[in-house]
Amino acid sequence: xxxxxxxxxKLFGIVSPFDNFVNLRxxxxxxxxxxxxxGDFLDKKKSxxxxxFLELNHGDAEMAVKLHTKNSSKLNKLFKADSIAARxxxxxxxxxxSVNEYLPAMEILSNQGLKDRHxxxxxxxxxxxxxxxxxxxxxIWAKGVKNFLPQIEEISETASKEYRLESMLNKMEKxxxxxxxxxxxxxxxxxxxx
Length: 194
Description:
The protein is an all-alpha fold. It has 8 helices and 2 strands; from the N terminus they run ααααααααββ. The relative contact order is 0.09.
């Protein structure tokens, strides 16, 4: 900093008050953190609510909600109670907490084991048609999925078990792919052995 001030004094005859910049930077840091955190959350919330349903990742969403809940608590304490920034921080906290309502549905419905046959059962239970390939969480939520979560959870658990079995079977088939079984006669008889 001193070097810059020296060069500036030699060239222009004056010195810029960089100390003001450092102080201003410290004063604006909480506001920057607020806007950065709110912007990050809103981007994620938009992708969760409006993005393709099959791209939902419940684990990532749950971790992000926990992180933003923690951050929103910290941000609430940084601003004076009657300030605009405090109101924004409080609204942000409420928005983050409101996403908790969607997490159970995200967990149940973002199961990678759900196949078309499972989605047909879910459609039957809900009495509506939903395409998980093009639909969004917001769309299925508007169709009342929260009222049917216990029944849908059973379907999702069944799908998980089927998926695990399919995965194990596929792994076994892959392991056995290169195996050759030789069958021969036992002691020159008509009895075959492996």
